[in-house]
Amino acid sequence: MKENKLKLITKVLAILVICLVSFVGIYVQKGNKMENVVKGVSLGKDLTGYREVIVEVSDATKVTDSDGKVVGNTDNYNDSSIEQNSYTKTEEKVNNEENLNVENYKKVKEILQTRLEKFGVDEYNLSLDEQTGKIYIQLPENDRTDDIVSNLIQTGKLELKDSKDSSKVLLNNEDLKEVSAVYNTTESGTTVYLDIKLNKAGKEKLKDISTNEYATLPEKEDTESDTNTTSDTNTESEEDNMENATNVTAEVQTEGENVTTENTETDENTTQEESTESKTTEEEQKKVTLSIDGSEMVTTSFDEPIENGTLDLTMNKASKDSSEINKNLQSASTIAVLLNSEVMPLTYKVSENQYVKTGITSQNLKNVIIAMVIIGAVLLVYIMIKYKGKGILGAISNIGYMAIFLLVLRYTNVELTIEGILGIVISGILNYWFTIKLLKGEEKAFMDFVQKVIPILIIAIVGCFISWAKIASFGMAMFWGIAITIIYNLIVTRNVITKVEK
Amino acid sequence: MKKISYLVICIIIVIGAVVAGVKGFKFDMQYEARNKITLSNKTGIEISEMEQIAKEVLGDKRFKVQEVELFGNTVSIIANEITEDEKTKIVEKFNEKYGTDVSIDSVTITNIPHTRIRDIIKPYILPIAITFIIILVYFMIRYSKLGITKVCIETIAKTVLMELLAFSIIAIARIPFGTIVPPIILGVYTITVTIISSNFENKRVALELEEEKK
To answer: Do B127 and A136 touch (CB under 8 A)?
Structure first.
């Protein structure tokens, strides 16, 4: 009897300690202040704030260099940089008037939606003004937001062109099947590649290109073996002609941002040409230039025919630095996302980009929490009155459940949204219901409860796997809620109530 | 009693459908077509003071004042419509309040398009559909003794009815469609399938007890 009492008191004290830790925290002195070492709750965008971006149809005109080649538009270059680089501002608009129609605006919206999903944005809001083509975007604010915003409206145009005659486009986006970022690790380090797979038509075209006029011509004089020479890459910043697999930097000009990638020697399917005096002359050797969004990535001819329809574009030289590898992988993944979605039919520019705090203030949240606590208190008082001694322990057990539940949510990094809070409320109600079953002394209370909550468990598990943040928040909150309800009530509540009955 | 409650539910659904058809749903400010102006200064802006200014100028119009960026010195005022005249008055009152000289021409009225209902609820459709199919199959297997067709029809009918009821109440009560509505729909769906499951389980247990007695 005394032993049972002692065990009961110990359990109740343990519950109270957990409640203190969860609701109040553990304060430790750090420097001159006391800091709570218990992890805080992670809140979703509807409870903190979001990035608001407005993109609109660009009215810029094209900018050309002294050779008449288009280098950008007036969104990328201001008057002073145009003068500095001896560029010329033309009257030709980047967007033709005939393309400014509702169909293209809707297409742009769909492309942006696809890109946001492929960039892994777990929650967004897009709305289109069909009159002006303006698109309003809401994104969660995190480390990747700036990167996503700067890349979202890129054209995503891939072209394989004749290096001398840029109007002769040999391959474009219509020939693409899939583009992916891959990496290969060897003894010398990890190299990141942009793996460009072509569709059936593209495969045939590439085979034709690599076997006919753009195949490397046999050299007229003896030269050294050409297995490891670099390709010529025309870049905006530098040109390098070096032997034996050195690094050449290609600069991808994107709107408002320069993404630097490195091109090294590609695989055995691309050819290299030694820059020796004994080479075949440039007039005889025809080459192709691969460009993405107008930025030339590599210029080369083909040593061997490419029959597998795959081009591997090297993004960097072999590296062992993990941050550099991650950066290159991120760049390659971004380019892959842009190329895998359709080409933007119109050029857009960002007209507004700002962080907006949510309308739900901390005071609003406090009011909701207070309301929930009051309702919870009323329900607990009810069971205390109805079931007396057992009811008091049942109420303490319920509070302990909520304390453990909130701790678990914090340490499993569940991002709380309004749907997540709903999940917490429903879990609380389910736990209360289970407690009443135990207080009533129902036989098979546990099995009955489990069988009745299977549908909710299905919803919770499916929700956990959905990428949309709000549904994932609901799913995870419900999953942990039900799991803890079952385990906690079996181990703690049932035990405590049984002891009181004895 | 059951028949009366079903009748009341059907009446509410019809009224809701009429209201939604005639007036449409009311949207949260964050999702409806709106105008926005942004103001900033160097010293900091109190949201409550800006709300006061906006109320004086915009009167009965629905509006919202939002804090922009993290420095406490920029706010956006959004409303269904902000005319040039209203913009001028807001800027003048702002300058008067904070001692700034923000020029009226430097403040532009940005038009933000509305978000369609289908875009708001689209992310919820697939997960609800997947879970509903799984739950339906589970019910058909577990409660086959109650009659597969009956279980199927009852589950579909009750779930659809409750969701329609929720939408009708949202339309009638003019609850703003936006941040709160999708959680309401999700919550109604979750609670409905739990209640259906509970009812089926009780019926199954009762049936088993009857069979045992026989």
So the answer is: no
- Quickly tell me which residue has 């079996």 as its tokens: A490
At A19-68, the pLDDT tens digits run: 989 988 888 888 888 888 888 888 887 788 899 999 999 988 888 888 87
Q: Cβ–Cβ contacts within 10 Å for residue A64, how many? A: 16
Q: Which helix (H) or strand (E) holds A486?
A: helix A469-488
End-to-end CA distance of chain A: give it in Å, rounded: 9
Binary contact (A474, B183; C-beta < 8 A): yes
B chain contacts of residue A459, beta-carbon cutoff 8 Å: 131, 135, 189-190, 193
CA of A481: how far to CAs of A39, A366, A429, B40, B133, in Å? 19, 22, 10, 44, 23
The pair of three-digit structure tokens given for residue A116, joined into one six-digit string: 């946001």
How close does chain A come to B202, measured CA to CA in Å? 9
B125 part of contact set with chain A, CB < 8 Å? no
What percentage of chain A carries pLDDT values higher than 70?
A: 86
Q: Verify whether the Cβ–Cβ distance B112 to A127 is below 8 Å.
A: yes
Q: Please tell me the distance from the alpha carbon of residue A489 to that of residue A400, in angstroms, as a whole number.
A: 10
Facing residue for B68 by CB, picked from A134, A356, A468:
A356
A215-224, A419-428, B3-12, range with the lowest pLDDT:
A215-224
Contact of B23 with chain A, judged by CB distance below 8 Å, is answered with no
* Cβ within 8 Å, pair B124-A471: yes
Interchain CB distance below 8 Å, B131 and A459 = yes
Write the pLDDT tens digit of every residue in B167-180: 999 999 999 888 88
Q: For chain B, which residues score pLDDT lower than 50?
A: none
Q: How far apart are CA B195 and CA B158, in angstroms?
A: 10
Listing DSSP states for A107-175 in one string gives HHHHHHHHHHHHTT--S-EEEE-TTT--EEEEEE-STTHHHHHHHHT----EEEEESS-TT-EEEEGGG
How large is the C-alpha radius of gyration of chain B?
26
Rounded CA separation A314/A318 (Å): 10
pLDDT in the model for residue A266: 42
One DSSP character per residue, A237-254 reads S-----BSS--EEEEEEE
CB atoms near residue A102 (< 10 Å): 11
Q: Is the pLDDT higher at A427 or at A86?
A: A427
Distance of CA B6 to the CA centre of its chain: 25
Tell if the CB–CB gap between B201 and A356 is shorter than 8 Å: no
Note the ipTM here: 0.88
Instruction: Give the β-pairing of A348-357 and A49-57.
Output: antiparallel
Looking at beta carbons, which residues of chain B come within 8 Å of A46? 179
Place of tokens 């509305």: B114
Q: Each residue of A104-136: b (16+ CB within 10 Å) or e?
A: bbebbbebbbebbeebebbbbbbbbbeeebbbb
